[in-house]
Design a protein that fits this description.
It contains nine helices and 67 strands. 14% of the residues lie in helices and 35% in strands. It comes from Adlercreutzia rubneri.
Length: 765
């Protein structure tokens, strides 16, 4: 009642001659005005937590906006909660009131300025949501803006921040979750929605990450804008830069779907990066007005790597002279790296995929726009519909260039390798005065572009290869290279220096170019699987030799079909076989000896080699063309039957028989009813491994008519020791059921009639 007494005293003083009623009316209006201009009710609650002991098992619980504000005030007063656990026990609505960050403070260079009060504990959102976050003012450009200000060795996880509205034009340190993440802080499982804008250093999750830390499995759906002249805007972090020789920063498994815009260093995941970005995805539109614009990273500078990332959001800049516009990384370079990153390694971009268009600037690439001095671009795939630049463009890298090598740390060797990448963007869809299907190479003597292709053709383990020659050259020893598509015009494939490889054709074809073949100099190759292998036709009209084997080299064929006699290379327990329907491209197949013997009608012996033939006439023709060759006929042509595919179990001489050898007119007799009244399983396979239903379709054309009761088109009646003998059993469930119901109706009707007759006789008596 104290507020009411104060207001009433006010009216008595200033309205002494008014009636009591008038004074209370004035008091009511005064009280209403006080309520309208007061701070939100939750801001005056002095209780910090609803409950809890601050341990992992029993964290401090926050139930409402009043308590999260009290928690904020305690941190900003100097309690960093190091070693303590805090968690919301319910969703919290901040109601759009102006918010002061938890852990207030400022950045100084790459560190935390003196006088800051960062949060250092663990905040586990436990799947809850904080909504209504609003920030429109700052204490300075380097003042950290977000739900949290500065995280210093802290952990924040499993939290959603929804309906955020952060608009601080002066800020260079703004994120929806936190302004600054430093010193091994970790953010994981955080999702943010809304919008955030500032001058520079703006991110959906964090404005900046410095020194060391990790952001894992987070997602940004908010729009992010760096409206000032400095830039550095990213869907996850605006800038992840500045580290130490022992420090490491990483962004892993994160996704962005929000639109990202600004001047320079604009990226779907990170704007400016010296961190390790892996397995991240971007689908939001990425738009800059200057240099370094990328689907994943705007600029990768001096250190770190980008791997396993995908981009499907359009990448563009409005500045025609801007360097570095790329589907994955805009610009990779070294600038001031020698003193800051003295022990760094070359920047790498590996295993990434871009499917979005890349437009604008002076250097545009499907994977990297511009790459300077040193690094590796490998295992990436670009399928952009178009790539456009005012000067340089390429399907993988737009421009490879050298800069002042004084920027390179001594531990980084100069030279860029662009190897084993795929670009499906046609050259006529790449628009630039200076362009290449894979890269525009300004200095071929310093940079290497090799073994790139338009599609993946082979795989060894988890590694895909754009060319088969590249797979043979770099696949690990004792590995199996598996074709994933047919290849043609192949150069010579070599295995040497004691290496051993296996080539699995896997149903695909391998056709060599002129003078192309297998070269096995002190190396071993085994070929398995099915597929055609053919060398080019020589000057004499005959196929060029399949292989050159020297030193301790060896070739063992355990599969494939070839356009030439390969008997010298057939492996033990395998044989060369020419099917009756062999095609001209590759008639000589390599199959197991047992299969060859089963399917052959004749064998040609020519010196020390043996070739099996599925057609005796073809065998005789082949033997006649080879002086000294002999023909051994194995069996006469068999009579066509329901198992005429040439594979599987040999025929027993009966055509269309049941399992007990009795004739049947049904080609599916093996899968039908047995004579003992039992039923064969529906999925029982025949000798070819084909289920009964499939065999029926394949063999109807050769099935013989029959006069037996099992003739096609009629129901076969059968007797059974357990069947009800008053009703015929048709073998068809529906028909049997109808007959049974009919019989029951007849019996029931008769019983009813008999009962009525007995009642009449009883009345008559």
């Amino acid at each position: 009642m104290a507020p009411y007494r104060s207001v009433h005293a006010f009216t008595v003083r200033f309205f002494p001659h008014s009636s009591v009623s008038l004074r209370w009316v004035v008091a009511a209006f005064a009280l209403l005005a006080a309520l309208c201009w007061a701070s939100p009710a939750w801001a005056v609650d002095s209780a910090v937590f609803a409950s809890g002991a601050g341990t992992e098992a029993d964290p401090y619980l926050i139930e409402n906006a009043s308590q999260i504000a009290a928690f904020r005030d305690a941190v900003n007063a100097g309690d960093d909660y190091d070693g303590k656990y805090v968690a919301p026990g319910a969703d919290v609505d901040l109601e759009g009131a102006e918010w002061t960050p938890i852990g207030a403070g400022t950045r100084k260079s790459s560190g935390i300025a003196e006088g800051s009060t960062p949060f250092a504990g663990t905040f586990d959102g436990a799947g809850h949501t904080v909504s209504g976050l609003k920030i429109t003012s700052t204490q300075g450009a380097d003042y950290a803006i977000g739900l949290f200000g500065i995280l210093d060795g802290a952990t924040v996880k499993n939290l959603t921040v929804a309906d955020a509205k952060i608009a601080v034009p002066q800020s260079e340190l703004a994120g929806i979750l936190c302004g600054m993440l430093a010193n091994d802080s970790t953010v994981s499982g955080v999702n943010v929605y809304g919008s955030v804008s500032g001058k520079a250093g703006v991110g959906g999750i964090a404005g900046r990450m410095t020194l060391s830390g990790a952001i894992e499995n987070c997602e940004n759906s908010a729009s992010v804008t760096a409206a000032g002249g400095v830039g550095n805007a990213g869907g996850i972090v605006g800038a992840a830069y500045y580290t130490t020789p022992t420090g490491r920063m990483a962004i892993t498994g994160c996704r962005n779907s929000g639109s990202i815009s600004g001047t320079d260093c604009i990226g779907g995941i990170a704007g400016l990066s010296a961190t390790f970005v892996s397995n991240c995805e971007n689908s939001g539109a990425i738009a800059g007005t200057s240099y370094s614009v990328g689907g994943i990273v705007g600029e990768q500078k001096n250190y770190g790597a980008v791997s396993g990332c995908t981009n499907s959001g359009a990448v563009s800049t409005s500045n025609a002279s801007a360097y570095g516009i790329g589907g994955i990384v805009g610009w990779a370079r070294y600038d001031g790296a020698a003193p800051a990153y003295a022990t760094s390694a070359p920047i790498t971009v590996t295993g990434c995929a871009n499917s979005a268009s890349v437009q604008g600037g002076s250097c545009a690439g499907g994977i990297v726009g511009t790459f300077y001095n040193a690094g590796t671009v490998s295992g990436n795939a670009n399928t952009a519909a178009s790539i456009t630049s005012s000067s340089f463009a390429g399907g993988i890298v737009g421009n490879l260039q050298n800069a002042d090598i004084s920027s390179l740390p001594s531990t980084v060797p100069e030279g860029i390798l662009v190897e084993n990448n795929v670009s499906a963007t046609p050259l006529n869809a790449i628009t630039a005065p200076l362009k290449g299907p894979y890269a525009y190479n300004n200095t071929p003597s310093d940079f290497t572009v090799r073994d790139n292709g338009s599609a993946w053709v082979a795989q060894a383990g988890a590694t895909r290869y754009a060319t088969l020659a590249g797979a043979f050259a770099t696949a690990p020893d004792h590995s199996t290279i598996k074709l994933v598509s047919s290849v043609s015009d192949q150069p010579t494939l070599s295995v040497s220096d004691g290496r051993e490889l296996t080539l699995d054709l896997a149903g695909f074809n391998l056709f060599f170019a002129t003078d192309g073949s297998l070269s096995l100099q002190d190396g071993a190759l085994t070929v398995t699987g099915q597929g055609d292998v053919a060398t080019a036709e020589g000057a004499d009209g005959k196929p060029e030799p399949l292989a050159t084997v020297s030193g301790t080299g060896s070739l063992a064929l355990k599969g494939g079909s070839y356009n030439q006699d390969v008997a010298p290379y057939v492996a033990d327990s395998y044989a060369e076989f020419v099917p009756a329907d062999a095609h001209a491209t590759a008639p000589f197949s390599v199959v197991p000896v047992s299969t060859a013997k089963h399917n052959a009608q004749a064998v040609v012996h020519d010196g020390g080699k043996t070739v099996y033939y599925g057609d005796a006439g073809a065998a005789r023709t082949a033997a006649a063309a080879a002086p000294g060759a002999t023909v051994e006929e194995l069996k006469a042509p068999s009579t066509p039957s329901g198992n005429e595919g040439g594979e599987g179990n040999p025929s027993d001489g009966q055509t269309g028989t049941t399992n007990d050898g009795q004739p049947s007119g049904d080609a599916n007799a093996n899968a039908g009813d047995k004579t003992d009244g039992s039923t064969a399983a529906d999925d029982q396979t025949d000798g070819n491994g084909t289920k009964g239903a499939d065999k029926d379709d394949a063999s109807k054309a050769t099935a013989k008519p029959s006069t037996s009761s099992a003739a096609s088109g009629t129901h076969t009646y059968r007797s059974s020791s357990t069947a009800y003998r008053g009703v015929p059993q048709t073998g068809d469930a529906a028909t049997d059921a109808l007959l049974a119901v009919g019989a029951l109706a007849v019996v029931s009707g008769g019983a009813a009639a008999l009962a009525r007759a007995r009642m009449k006789r009883a009345r008559a008596k």
